[in-house]
Every structure is written in C-alpha cells, then in structure tokens.
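ERR on first pass: missing label on line 2. Operator R.T. fixed the label and resubmitted. Corrected input:
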Amino acid sequence: MESRRNPRAVVDPKVRQVGFFTSSQPDSSSSQLQQPDPISASASSPPVSTISPSGNSLSPVMIPPPRHNSSDAFPLRNAVVASAVSPSSFSYSSRRDFPDGSTTASPGRHSRGSFVKSSVPVASSLPGIGMDSMAAAKSSSVPASGLTTVSVVTMPPGLSEKASGMEVESDHKKNSKPLKEKTTKAERRAIQEAQRAAKAAAKVDGGKGPAVTSASVASTSAKAARPAKPTSQKNDVAVAAGAAEKKGGPSEKDRKKDAPHPRMQYDDESRVVKAKRRAVVKQTEAKNRVELFRHLPQYEHGTQLPDLETKFFQLDPMHPAVYKVGLQYLSGDISGGNARCIAMLHAFQEVVKDYSTPPEKNLNRDMTAKISSYVSFLIECRPLSISMGNAIRFVKNRIAKLPITLSESEAKAALQSDIERFINDKIIGADTVIVKHAVSKIRDGDVLLTYGSPTAVEMVLLHAHELRKKFRVLVVDSRPKLEGQLLLRRLIKRGINCTYTHINAISYIMHEVTKVFLGASSVLSNGTVYSRVGTACVAMVASAFRVPVLVCCEAYKFHERVQLDSICSNELGDPNAISKVHGREDINYLDGLTNNANLQFLNLMYDATPSDYISMIITDYGMVPPTSVPVIVREYQKEHLLV
Amino acid sequence: MWRRSPSFILDERRTSSSPPMADTTRAPFQNPDSISAYYQTRAAHHGVITSEWLSQAQAAVGGVSGDEHPISSLTDLGDGKSFNVIEEFNSWRKQPDLAEAVAAIRALAAVIRASEATTMMELEIELKKASDTLKSWDKTSISLTAGCDLFIRYVTRTSALEYEDFNSAKSRLLERAEKFGEISCKARRIIAMLSQDFIFDGCTILVHGLSRVVLEILKTAAQNNKLFRVLCTEGRPDGTGVLLSSELSKLDIPVKLLLDSAVAYSMDEVDMVFVGADGVVESGGIINMMGTYQIALVAHSMNKPVYVAAESYKFARLYPLDQKDMAPALRPIEFGIKIPTKVEVERSARDYTPPQYLTLLFTDLGVLSPSVVSDELIQLYL
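pass 2 clean. output:
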C-alpha cells in the first residue's frame, strides 16, 4: 500500500523487479535513496536476489520484463550503468562486443560465445517467480559459469581472459553465496578456478588487484565490474583493432543471418546483446531510460555521426548510397514518411544498378540477403517507419518473384523499373489522387486546421488555393520540432491566409475551425492513425467540438497490424530536445540535471489516434471511413503481389 | 458556419455574399424551376399510390412488367439515330412501381440494345455518354447517379469481354444488363424477406417517410400474420406519412399518425424505427427525407434500433462530412399562411444521418452493418 503511493523514484529505475516478491525490505530501498551519489547507489545496489523489494512497489504501469531475463539481465545492466558513468569513451556496446571474444580467435572463443547463449535458454525454461526464479537462475547460471571457466582455463593468459573471468566470477559470486550447499562438486571447483583466475589476473594488473579481490570476496558484482572497467577498455582496444584487421567489421553473413526484427523489444537483454554485436552504428544507451518505454531503443543522440563517418572505409559491404541515406536519417536531414521512403528506394535502385551476382550464388537469394543487411543498417540509423517496411516488403517480394530465366541485366532492369513504378504509382501518384479527393471537401469560407507539416495536406492546401477556393489555414505546431513553421512559410509565400499557433491553444482555436486535415505516418487496420505526436490530441479536441477530422494518407502506408496505444511501438527522440531551449539560456532550468537518476526525459515521436476521432481517411482509393481500412489492406496486399 | 470566435468575422465578411442562402430568401413558390426534379418525380408517384398501385407493384415483382409494357427500345431499334435515353428513361419512369434507378438501368440496357457501335470501346463510350445525360437530367437524385454508376461498373467489368468477338460480347453485356435490372427489380422483395426476422409479434414500429421498400416490408409482415403496430410521422410538407398510413390501414395494420415533432414524445413506446433511404453513402450513413436524422438521434439516445431498408443500387460514392456537405435538394413548403418575404425558409428536402446512429441496413446484399457499406463499395469500385 505504502510503497505504491511512493513516487516512482523509490523504485530504482535501473533495476527491474520481477513478479511477486514476498518479503519487503523498505529500508534497503530507502537506504539506496539516501546515498549521496545516485550513480554509486545504482551501481552498488545489489541485484534482485538481495534486495527483493515487495511486489507492490512495482509501479502500476511498469511492464514486467520477460521472465527468462531475470537471471542475467541485472548484472549486465549494472555493468552498463557503471560503464556509462565512467568517463571513458568506451560505450556499452563496445563492452558488449567483448564477451563474444569473436575476434581474438582464441581456442576458448567458441565456448565463450556460448556463455551468453547457453545461459539464456536454460533460464527461460525454468519456471518460478520472485525468489524461486532467482534460485532457479542461480542453479542455471552456475553451469554457465562453469562453462566459461573452462574456457578461461584453456585460453592463453592475457588481459582479456582476466577481465572476462572477473565478470564471470562476479556473476557467479552473487549467485552462489546464498546456496552454497546446493552446488555440486564440479561446480564448486569451477568457481574456485574462476576465482583463482580472477586473482591471477588482478595481480597482473597491479594496483587494482586488491580492489578486485576484495570485490570478489565480499562485495557485490556491480562493484566488481567497475574496477574491471579500465582493463576491459584496454582489451576492447586490442580486440577492436584485431577485429578491424581480421574481418573489417561484422561479416555480411553474420549481419544478414539475424537481422534485428524491426520491432525488436529492447528490454530483452539477450536480443539487444545479439543486435549490438552486429551493429555498425555504435549507439550509446541513454542513461536515464524511461521506464514505460524500455522496450524501445533509447540512445544518446549526436554521438554516432562522427563515429560512423570515420568508419566509412571499413565498411566494404555497405553500398555508398545506402550509407548516405543512413547518415541522412541519423542526422535528421531527411524526415517525413514519404521523403524517407523515396530516399531509401532510390538508394536501393543504386544498389540494384551496381549489383553483380557473386560466383556460385543465386541473384534472388543473394540480393534479398544484401537488401536485408542494408535494411538492418538503416534500422540502426533510425527505426523504420511502417511505410518503409511496406516498401521493403515490396522490393523483396519483387526480387523473390523474379523469373529464374532472366539474365542478370534483365533482372536488374526489371527491378529498377519496379522500384521506380512503386515510387511513381504508390507515392507520387497516390498523392495527386488524394489531393483531388481532398480538394472536393474544401468549400469557400472554410477554416482548415492542420498540425505539423504533413506533405499530403500541404499539397491539398496549395491545390485548393490554385483552384481559387477561399479558405483560411490554421497551422498548429508544437515543440521541439516546430515543423509547422516550414509549412507556414511555404503557405504564406503562396498567399494563403494563415494563422499560426501552438498546440497549447488548440481548445481555444478549435471554435472557428470547420475542418481538420491531418497527415499520418501509418494507418493500422483497426483504423488507428499512427502519426506525429500531438495528432491524437488535435483529433480528440476536434471531435469534441464536432469538427470533422480528415486524414490524408497514401494506401502504401496502411498496415494490417493492430495497435491500441502509443506505447507498444513508438520511437523516442533526443531527450535533449525537450530539456533545452536553444538560444534561451535564461530559461534552461534543467541545466545540470540531465544526469540525475531521478529524472527521465520522454520525447515521443509518434502517437496513435483511435478511429473514433476520425471522420474520414482520404487515400488513393478514395475517401473511406476508418472502418474500411482492413478492406483496403486486403485488396491492396493482393494487388501488392501482382504489381 | 457561424461560430463564437471573433476572428471568424474575417470569414464572414468574405463569404457574406456567397449564394447558398441567398436564393432561399425568395418566396418558395415563385421559382418552381428550382424544385428538385427528384421530388417532382416523387410527387407524381405519390399521386398514384393506391391499392391498385400495390397490385401493379405486385405484378412488377413477379416480373410481368417487362411484358406488359411494349419495350419501346424494340421500336427504336429501327431508327437508332433518334434514340434518346431521357425519353426512354421517362417512359420507364412513368411506372409508379419502378424506382428511378431501376428505370435508369432499364433505359441504359435499352441503350446497349439500340447501339450501333461496332467495337467494345465505342459501345462503352456510348454507354458512358448516356449515363452522363441521365445523371445530368437530375443531379440531385442520388439513387439515379448511383444506379447509373453501378450499372456501368457491373456491366462492363468483366474480363471475359476481351476474348470474345463483338457480337457475343454485346449479347453478354445485354445479358448482364438484364440481370442487373432484374436484381434491382427483385431487390425490394428480397429486402422484405430479410427483414421479417426483425419484426416480432406485439412490436411497435416507427416509420418515417414514404418508402416503397418499407411499405413492402410491412406488407409482407402483415401477410405473414405478424401482429404489430405502426406509428407514422406526418411527413411535412408533402404528407408522405398520411399516404403511408392510409395504405397501411387498407392492409388492416393498426396505425397511428404523429406530428413530426412528436417523435421524442412517443419514442418510449416504440420498439424499432424503420426508414428508407434516398441514398446510402460511403461512410455507411444514409441520406433520406428531412427528419430522419433527428429521429435517429432520438432513437439512439433511447437505445432503440434504427433499421434502414435500401436497395443496393442506392449505394453511392459520396461521403458527406456534415449536413451541408451535399448538393441541396430543394422543395416547396406550404405553410398555409403567407410568410413575410424577409423570413428565410429552410427548404432542404433531405438530411444526412451519420452511421453511428444506424443499427442495421437491410439491403438485397443482405443485412449489413453500416461499416460494411463502404467495404462493398470499395470492392465494387476498386
């Protein structure tokens, strides 16, 4: 009861509590709070096994993480925190690369690789909640550590083993402590060996030795991970260098094999680790991740670009056109659903043009794999929009359907023209049809409201103005993007009478509006419109004022998925964009607070508008009610295959 | 249009001279030419609606009508040049039992029959021209436009046409045209059969307007020995409710006449509302005689089902956003006393009922929920 009313800060945002916890230890969590340094508090906070907060201290909105994660997620996350805090330039992802050991080509490499893999499925298969699950995790992770120690033993002595051994040791340390009697002989031996290895490594390291050993003996795993940090950095340097020499980045085969799912759940630690290993773009994880949105990638912004630029020559499998588009996504030079999609398709055209089938390979399969690897690169730069997903599906479909009898040049020409046709018919052509339909709904004397800067709506307004319809436009805008100002500029240049306001004034300004025109990033098959954040607010206010809401959206953006809220699938923007106001130093009240553990910035990019608030969706198939989206999706997809 | 916000003054100044309201200031009877042709037709039909009309309608349903009217197009075949769609249409339209759209469909079928085109393309163009003329004959009639469009879609959208020689293609076209006409003709009967499950013994039905489909439904129900009571709204200004109630009384159905303004008063005792439709629009809403919207609103707020009976040829590719978002069909209103010229009179003859206030649509395609209308339309026109 009491803990439920507590502010969210009481629940350590770094630690996920799973399931129902029987014994509550309020003093342990409060003592955490009292620690002066939030970082050390979070770093030193023992993993769930020791803290075991009561079940109802879970925030009511908190999503319980996947159960199988409970065993190995916490030490990892603590390590992440420590590494992110330390002034080192090395990021979480580079550390992540390490336990794979893939680049050292040591004999122990194989089994080490299996460390991550083996422990996860075992843990996931085990039932149990709370304390039970912890116990289960222990027993499951002990064999895993045993595995690793074997690898440690077999490996030639070096810095890298020591660090890894330390991790392993610290890992098992916290696990094995409460149930010593349960461990088998072999396991105990493995543990001992691990400890020995860790000690030896610490001695090699010199000054840091005592800290490490003390950590291994008494303190929690998180503390152990922290001193280990600098050494592991060195290792990383060596490892990275070795990687660059030997492979030149992750191999293409590796990349294509398991391209991340476009909607990967980023709170699923094991998947994230896998994705990281392949990643070309080194993203720094944001420090204070918003609890409800942990499943979405949350990165530090503005750090990747220089890194990626320097790596340009190392990435031979990446086509320059794709690379360029990826960089443009990353820097925000290309935004807007249609623009991004067209840019991507043009890049793919270039890819097709420069493609030549490698010997002993099949064009259909090899090119699909190539496209997949490019797509995963683009996802790393910025999550795909649904429209892009549809376009990619189209391209892959076309590749797969290429007749085997075609020669390579013919196939390439066919593909290029197919992509061109997609751009012309489904995007550009669709827009002209939408404009034609939408203009018929604009009457003289209308006051039209639009939000943000939807391209389709802009075309509608300009065309209506060309037809000498007499109307006024209300451009509603919002921080931080202020896209509406661009639209405003273009409309005013054409001589359209405009009013500009921010979304805060929407309820006042809605009186005088006769129609609301909105754009959409996607329309889902329950009629939900997925669009720029703020759209739902505008639509709801409009429907409360009984103003018709018209959504302009090309049919290629329709998707058969159903989404009920804006949480499951969304994109998070740069938190700095909402914490700072550029050019206004006098109101930057949040200066110095951005690293505060109690503060989380949520900069959502999209939201979902329920179909109840939408009067009409204008697509290239005409004006349809939101209830008819599934029909269009069905018919469209049929056609999709035929195109 | 007139909002509270002061900044709207800007727009009001700009639109103050806009025509829509201007002509309504004139006395309603001084410009009979502005009366919607659709309502002229309806008025003519209402004049002849009697029991003998009913028997005639019965005959029409049986498919006799095609024989008893010497098909004028047969005579036209000889002098194809002078063939006129409108005349043909008007000759069909004179039959009181035939809906306007069905008349148009028959007329268009006659166009195919009379055509001297030698290629498919030519024939299609000719058909298109004929349907355009029909549509322009009365722009306000939704069912006429929709019927013409649907006919063209239905008749010409068959892939088999491409592989055959012209004569067999033409005969196939004619076949389809006849079939479509027949379907349209039987539509009312189908709807009446479908709706029987919804009328239970002892129910009270509120009816608005004079819809031939609704009349058919009630008549069939009476023939099936269902016991029910009907409340008829008066249906100002053309007294459609009075006509309907007299028809129903002839069938020995207990019927009660209401003022249009007494709907909310008597909604308590009503079990269901039956209305016809001038047109069913893409959102699933209907365009019908003035007053339907408010009845639907009242019924919705009292949780009474609103059933719409409409033939599928009334499905139109329209999507009105609000009441003013359609071409107004004007009609004269007789107030009995002289109205000062400065008083404006709202002469619009129909309103739009949004789909959220409708429960079900009885069509010859089946009993549909409003959202299915758009699905059917998309599949038809896609």
